[in-house]
Specification:
five-stranded mixed β-barrel; two-stranded antiparallel sheet; binds succinic acid
Length: 189
């Protein structure tokens, strides 16, 4: 699969007849909403775990020195917390470019804090995409993140802002918080 998923995503969902769609964000989409939305609500999805296993060539790294950013991997029974945004379908024109480095849109069932449910879309970079880096220990991921930077800023900033946003949501993501702990012990961080 090519790195750039913009065109694939453009043809993936038919929004005709929909004037708004829910989007579930679990990584930078939680804390960086650089797009218009009608409303946003904390939400959770089941069966997925957040992992820093995706390479970033365009935001928090470069093609020669990719950063490590969040994707979701299947994990039965696990609950992943994030932020749901109700958006107009034309907002996907911007989002598909933002998430173009290996992420594809998938349909997911979301549960809001008050127990309500809705169907939404979520960007996932699966293990067959060209930028995928895969598992590593949390200490190694922290060392990698400490060195990477790209056009959107340092990889460290991505991780620390996500950790703060998850704390605000009251989430206990052991993977993210372990990377954060390792990162904070490294020189210069
Ligand atoms: C997301 O936040 O939902 C997708 C991954 C990212 O943009 O960090």
């Amino acid at each position: 699969m090519s790195h750039d998923t913009t065109e694939t995503n453009r043809h993936r969902h038919d929004f005709s007849g929909h004037d708004n769609v829910w989007l579930f964000g679990y990584g930078s989409l939680i804390y960086k909403a650089d797009f218009p939305y009608i409303e946003r609500r904390p939400a959770r999805i089941r069966g997925w775990a957040r992992r820093f296993w995706q390479g970033s060539h365009d935001h928090r790294g470069t093609p020669d020195a990719p950063g490590r950013v969040a994707t979701l991997v299947p994990e039965t029974g696990n609950v992943c917390a994030g932020m749901a945004y109700r958006i107009r379908p034309d907002v996907f024109t911007h989002l598909d470019v933002r998430e173009k480095n290996g992420y594809l849109r998938f349909t997911t069932e979301m549960t809001f804090d008050d127990g309500d449910h809705a169907e939404g879309l979520v960007y996932i970079a699966s293990d067959d995409n060209a930028a995928y880096l895969g598992p590593a220990s949390e200490a190694d991921i922290a060392r990698h993140i400490a060195q990477a930077q790209g056009p959107s800023g340092s990889n460290r900033d991505y991780l620390l802002r996500l950790a703060d946003a998850l704390r605000e949501l009251g989430d206990d993501d052991t993977h993210v918080f372990a990377i954060e702990r390792h990162l904070r012990t490294l020189p210069g961080t």
